[in-house]
Amino acid sequence: MQKFIITGGRKLRGELALQGSKNSALPIMAASLLCGEEVVLKSCPRLTDVYAASRILNCTGCKCSFSGSTAVIDPRDVSRTDIPETLMHEMRSSIIFMGAVLGRTGECTVSIPGGCELGPRPIDMHLAALRKMGADIREEHGRIICSGKAHGTKISLTFPSVGATENIILFAVNADGETVINNAAREPEICDLCGFLRKCGADIKGDGGSSIIINGVPKLHGCEYNIMPDRIAGATYLSMTAAAGGEIILTNSCITEMEPFLSVLEQTGCSIMTCGDRIYLRSGSRLKAVKERIRTMPHPGFPTDAQAVLMAALAAAEGTSVFEENIFDCRYRHVDALVKMGADIQAVGKIAVVKGVNRLHGADVAATDLRGGAAMVVAALAADGTSSVSGIHHIDRGYEKMEDAVRLLGGDMRRS
Ligand code: EPU
C-alpha cells in the first residue's frame, strides 16, 4: 500500500494551476451518455474517481478515452443498461448514472451504493423524484431496477441534495414537458452540469438559484466543454499554505464560487487578494482562530468538503475555533489523526472544538476519506518532523498527483 511521506516546516511558495473539478466532471461524464454525438471534455481531472466513471461509460457501450486532461466520450453505441455491482461500488457517485442511463434508454439497473466513509448516504430523494417523474422503480436484492420515460412534473426536495438534483436534471432533459425542481441544490457544479447540457441543446433555466426549470428536448448533440476549476482542491492548497506559511498564487481558480471559503480563511489573518482567475495568499505569522462558528451548509454556505482541511490549518492557530458539520453524519473521522499529531480537538456529534496548539508534530496516520486525508497532509506540512499518511487511495480519488503540486510549491512530500 502506498503512503505519503511528508516533512513539515517548509514554507510553500509559487504558482499552481488548479485542476478541473471532480464533482463537475463526474455528472458531466454521466450526462455525456445522453448526447447523440461525441463529447470533448477539457480540464478533465486525472483522478481515480474519473477513471471509475469512464469504466461505467465503457460498460454501457460508450467509448471513453483520455489524452492529458482531455476526455473524449463517444456515446453513440450505448447498448447495455445494467451497471454491475462492482462498478457501482467503486465510487458512491456512480448513482448519478441512474438518471442518465434511464433517460437515454428508458431502462436501467444499478445497485444501492450503500454507506460510505462519511456515514449512511441514502438515495431516498433520488428514487422518490424519479418515481414522480414517471419511472417505475423496484428494489430486488440490493439492485434497483428502473424503467419508464420521464414526463414533466414539479418536485420539491426536502433538502437541496446535490446528487438528487443532478439525477433529476439528467432524467428531465429529454422528458415530455416541463420539470420544475424546488429547493434544488445551488452548488456551482450544478451550474457547470447545466452549462454543459445547454451547450448540447438542453433547455434549462434557473440553475444557481433554488428553482430549476427544465423543458424536455427530443435530443442532445455533442459539444466541446471546459470543466470548471476545482474549488475544493483550491481550498486545500490555500489551507496548506496558510498552515505552513508562505505565498501562493492559484491560477485557473473560480473566485466567486470560492467566496464562502475565502471569507472564512481571511479571518485567520492571511492576506488574500483576487484578480481575474487568480488568488494570491500570503501567510506570514501564526494563524488566528476563527471567532464565528464555522457552520457547513449547502452552497452558498461554507462547504462541507473544505471543513477538514481548514480544521487542520486551525489546529495550530492562536485561540479556539468551533466547527458545526451540518451535511454529513460522520465527517470528523480525521480528528483522531490530527490529535495524534498534537492537535487539541474535541468532536461530539455535529460540533468540533479546536483549541489551537503551539506546534503540531509528525506522526504515522491513515487517511479515512478523501478530504480527511487531505487534512492530514495539511497538518503534516505545518508540523515539526516527518509524518507518513497511509490510505492514500482516498486522496487520489480527488487530487491530481498531490505530491507533485506540493513539491512544485517547495514542500517536502513524496509517495513511497
Ligand atoms: N441525502 C439523503 N437522501 C438522499 C440524498 C442525500 O438523506 O436521497 C443526505 C445525505 O446523506 C447527506 C446530505 O443529504 O447527509 C447531502 O447529500 P448530497 O446528496 O447533497 O451529497 P452528494 O450528492 O452525495 C455531493 C458531493 C460531495 C459533497 C456533497 C455536499 C459529488 C460527487 N459529491 O455528494 O463531495 O460533499 O455533494 O456538497 O458531487 C467530496 O468531494 O469529497 C464529496 C464527498
Map the helices and strands.
Elements lengths: L2 E5 L4 E6 L4 H11 L6 E4 L5 H13 L2 E5 L2 E5 L10 H6 L6 H9 L1 E5 L12 H9 L3 E5 L2 E5 L6 E3 L5 H11 L5 E5 L5 H12 L3 E3 L5 E5 L7 E4 L4 H14 L1 E6 L3 H11 L5 E5 L2 E6 L10 E2 L11 H8 L5 E5 L10 H6 L3 E5 L2 E5 L8 E3 L3 H13 L3 E5 L2 H4 L5 H7 L3 E4 L1
Parallel strand pairs: 2-14, 3-13, 9-10, 17-18, 21-22
Antiparallel strand pairs: 1-22, 1-23, 3-5, 4-5, 6-8, 7-8, 10-12, 11-12, 14-16, 15-16, 18-20, 19-20
Bound molecules: uridine-diphosphate-2(N-acetylglucosaminyl) butyric acid.
Number of strands: 23
**Small molecules bound in the structure, each named once:** uridine-diphosphate-2(N-acetylglucosaminyl) butyric acid
Q: Which residue ranges are poorly predicted, with pLDDT under 50 across at least 5 consecutive positions?
A: none
Domain count, please report it: 2
Shape-level CATH architecture of the largest domain: Alpha-beta prism
Q: Which fold does the CATH topology of the largest domain refer to?
A: UDP-n-acetylglucosamine1-carboxyvinyl-transferase, Chain
Global shape: elongated
